[in-house]
DNA sequence: CGATGTCATGCGCCGACTGCTTGTGGTCGA
DNA sequence: TCGACCACAAGCAGTCGGCGCATGACATCG
C-alpha cells in the first residue's frame, strides 16, 4: 500500500483531501504544520508528500528543502494559493516534483499522485511499527528518532514475524517454527529476543508470561 | 548533458521551445509529428519528452502509451491547448509525468523539466550516490571530494548495479547474474567487491552477512 | 612480432561473525 | 513459598567472507 503524508494547516481541506485519498486505497498520515510534517517526513517512509506552500511553524518551501537535505527521496507535490509563475518555479526548484494551484480539482490531485507513485516502484518497501519501521530493502530497523539499527539475518527475520502483527501475542513455538529450524533448542527464541532488546531497547519486545512475546512500539 | 525530445506540430512554437531549452544547456531533438516522435523516442535515449497533446500522424496520448508499452522510461511532460481537468487526468493516466496547459510560461516549462530531470539520475548521464556520483560517460566514479577513480568495465558494472538502489541489500546471486556470467565461480562477486573497496575505500560497499552487499555513500 | 601491461577469473587459507547451546541466577504467579 | 518460566551471559563450532596470489586472455606498444 502506498503511503502519503498530507501537510496542510486548513483542517477542513486537509481532512477532505486525506479522506478522498484514503478512499482510493492509500495509507494517509496528516500534519497540520511544517514542524510536525518535518518530523513525520524524517521518521516514516512515504511515497508521496502533499505539502501546502503556506504553513505555520515551518514554511512549505523550507520543509521540502530540509527534507531533501536529509536525503528524503519521497516525491513531493506542492499545493498553493499563490498562483504566480514565479511561485511555481520557486517550489519546483526547491525540490518539489509537482505544483498544483488552489483551487484544484480532487480528481486531478489524485491523478498527479498516481503519476508520482508510478515512479516510486522500487522505493521504500517498509513495515510500520509504531513510530518506527522496518526497511525491508536495507534489512534494518529504523527507530522513531530516525536511528538506523543494523540487524543480523535471524534477528531481522524474528522482528519481521513479530511486526507482521504488532501487539499480538506470538507463542514461542510459532516463532521457533517460522524463524528457526524445528530442531532448534527450545531457548533459541529467548536468546534472539534478548539480542533484539539489546539492540533496540528494553521495551520493544514484551514478554507475556506463559504465552510468548509481543511487539511494542519501535 | 541532459537529452530532451520536443514533439510539437506548430513549427514556431517547437523551435522557440527547443531554442530556449538548448540555451539552458540541454541537448534537444525535435519531431513535428507523432510518428517521428515515436521513432526517435524508441531509438534514442532521452531524459525528458515534451509532447503536444494534439499531433498529426499519431496523437500525443497514443504516443506516450506506445512508448510506455515498449518500456521507455523517460519522463514525459504533456503540453496541451485542452485545458479541462478530464484531459489532464487522461494524460497523466496514459503515462505522462506532468501536464502543462497552453498558453504556458517558458520559465515554468523549464522549471518543470528541471524537476523531472532530477528524477532521471539513473537514466543516462550520472548516478548520484550520497555526495559522489558515477560518471556513466567516462565510466569512472567521482568521490565526494571530487577525486575521480577509474574503474575497469566489470568493476564499474558491479558498482552501477549496486548504485541503482543504494542502501538496499543486493543478494550475491543477483549480482552474479546481472554482472557476470551465470557459470562464473561463486567467489567472483567477492573478488570484485574487494577491488571496489581497494579503489574507493573500505566503507563504500558494506557486507550484510549471509545475504549480500549494500552500497554506502561514495 | 615479441614484450609488456591490464583485465578477468579461479583457488584457497585464515579470520571473523553468526547461529546456537548451555548454565546460572532472577522473576513471576499461584 | 515453591515451581515454572524467563533474562542474560558466555562459549563453541561451523560457515561465510576478505584477501592475496596465480593463471590465462587480450590489447597495446615498442
TrEMBL record, chains A, B:
GO MF annotation terms: phosphorelay response regulator activity; transcription cis-regulatory region binding
Positions of the DNA-binding region: 124-217
Signal peptide extent: none
Gene3D superfamilies: 3.40.50.2300, 6.10.250.690, Winged helix-like DNA-binding domain superfamily/Winged helix DNA-binding domain
Gene Ontology CC annotations of this record: cytosol; protein-DNA complex
Swiss-Prot/TrEMBL GO biological process terms: regulation of DNA-templated transcription
Record key words, sorted: DNA-binding, Phosphoprotein, Transcription, Transcription regulation, Two-component regulatory system
PTM sites of type 4-aspartylphosphate: 52
Record flagged with keyword Transcription regulation: yes
Listed name of the protein: Transcriptional regulator
Domain OmpR/PhoB-type: 124-217
Amino acid at each position: 500500500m502506498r503511503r502519503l503524508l498530507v501537510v496542510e494547516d486548513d483542517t477542513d481541506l486537509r481532512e477532505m483531501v486525506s479522506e478522498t485519498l484514503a478512499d482510493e486505497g492509500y495509507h494517509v498520515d496528516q500534519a497540520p504544520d511544517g514542524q510536525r510534517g518535518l518530523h513525520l517526513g524524517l521518521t516514516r517512509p512515504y511515497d508521496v508528500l502533499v505539502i501546502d506552500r503556506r504553513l505555520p511553524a515551518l514554511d512549505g518551501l523550507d520543509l521540502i528543502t530540509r527534507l531533501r537535505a536529509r536525503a528524503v527521496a519521497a516525491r513531493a507535490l506542492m499545493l498553493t494559493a499563490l498562483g504566480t509563475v514565479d511561485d511555481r518555479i520557486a517550489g519546483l526548484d526547491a525540490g518539489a516534483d509537482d505544483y498544483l494551484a488552489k483551487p484544484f480539482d480532487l480528481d486531478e490531485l489524485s491523478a498527479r499522485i498516481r503519476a508520482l507513485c508510478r515512479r516510486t516502484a522500487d522505493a521504500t518497501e517498509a513495515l510500520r511499527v509504531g513510530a518506527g519501521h522496518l526497511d525491508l530493502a536495507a534489512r534494518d530497523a529504523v527507530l522513531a528518532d530516525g536511528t538506523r539499527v543494523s540487524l543480523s539475518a535471524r534477528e531481522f527475520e524474528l522482528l519481521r514475524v513479530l511486526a507482521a502483527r504488532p501487539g499480538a501475542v506470538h507463542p514461542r513455538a510459532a516463532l521457533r517454527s517460522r524463524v528457526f529450524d524445528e530442531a532448534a533448542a527450545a531457548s533459541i527464541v529467548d536468546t534472539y529476543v534478548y539480542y533484539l532488546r539489546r539492540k533496540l531497547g528494553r521495551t520493544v519486545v514484551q514478554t507475556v508470561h506463559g504465552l510468548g512475546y509481543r511487539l511494542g512500539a519501535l
